[in-house]
Amino acid sequence: MAIMFPRFLSQVKGFLAHDEGRALAEMAFEHCRELPALEVGSYCGKSTIYLASACQAHGSVVYAVDHHRGSEEHQPGEEYHDPALYDSQYEVMDSFREFRRNMVAARVEDAVVPIVARSEVAAKLWHTPLGLAFIDGGHSELAAQTDYSCWAPHVVSGGILAIHDLFPDPTQGGQAPINIWRQALASGEFEEVAVVKTLGFLRRH
């Protein structure tokens, strides 16, 4: 069965390339037939739509964890700041309204459970096994380590841990995501499955 994506998906704000998104959806389609997916770092919902399009086909869901206040690089004065997502009344970033509009437009609301919270708060009492966990949250070392420690343990045997923005060359990008990738491999609990551009997939033993 082919996974269908909405035509406007390329226009959704986000940093996931289409071939990365398609690979992510294919992994979710394979591993989330009976278990949910979870992503950390939804932003405006581009990756969420890829995941939800796959989960929807099985009647499964993706839990979309994001505080929607933006990562370090999204704040005013930073490289990836988007004024359209800035709430001047409260002087904070707010990507949640854009996220919800995109879920409605993509017709995937029945396959998406938004969790508007920091990763460590959402994980505090989490007990649901995951067929796939996708880490694409804050790229500071602390944020990446927090996301890894919060969610990797919930990936079932045979399930997938996906990590975005892997840059082996530190001149090309921040090293926090590839640090947790290497940490997962060094743990002996995961093995590499594939890397598509900067998106890597690991399978839990």
Automatic annotation (TrEMBL):
<dbReference type="GO" id="GO:0032259">
    <property type="term" value="P:methylation"/>
</dbReference>
<dbReference type="GO" id="GO:0005886">
    <property type="term" value="C:plasma membrane"/>
</dbReference>
<dbReference type="InterPro" id="IPR029063">
    <property type="entry name" value="SAM-dependent_MTases_sf"/>
</dbReference>
<keyword id="KW-0808">Transferase</keyword>
<dbReference type="GO" id="GO:0071770">
    <property type="term" value="P:DIM/DIP cell wall layer assembly"/>
</dbReference>
<protein>
    <submittedName>
        <fullName>Class I SAM-dependent methyltransferase</fullName>
    </submittedName>
</protein>
<dbReference type="GO" id="GO:0008168">
    <property type="term" value="F:methyltransferase activity"/>
</dbReference>
<keyword id="KW-0489">Methyltransferase</keyword>
<dbReference type="Pfam" id="PF13578">
    <property type="entry name" value="Methyltransf_24"/>
</dbReference>
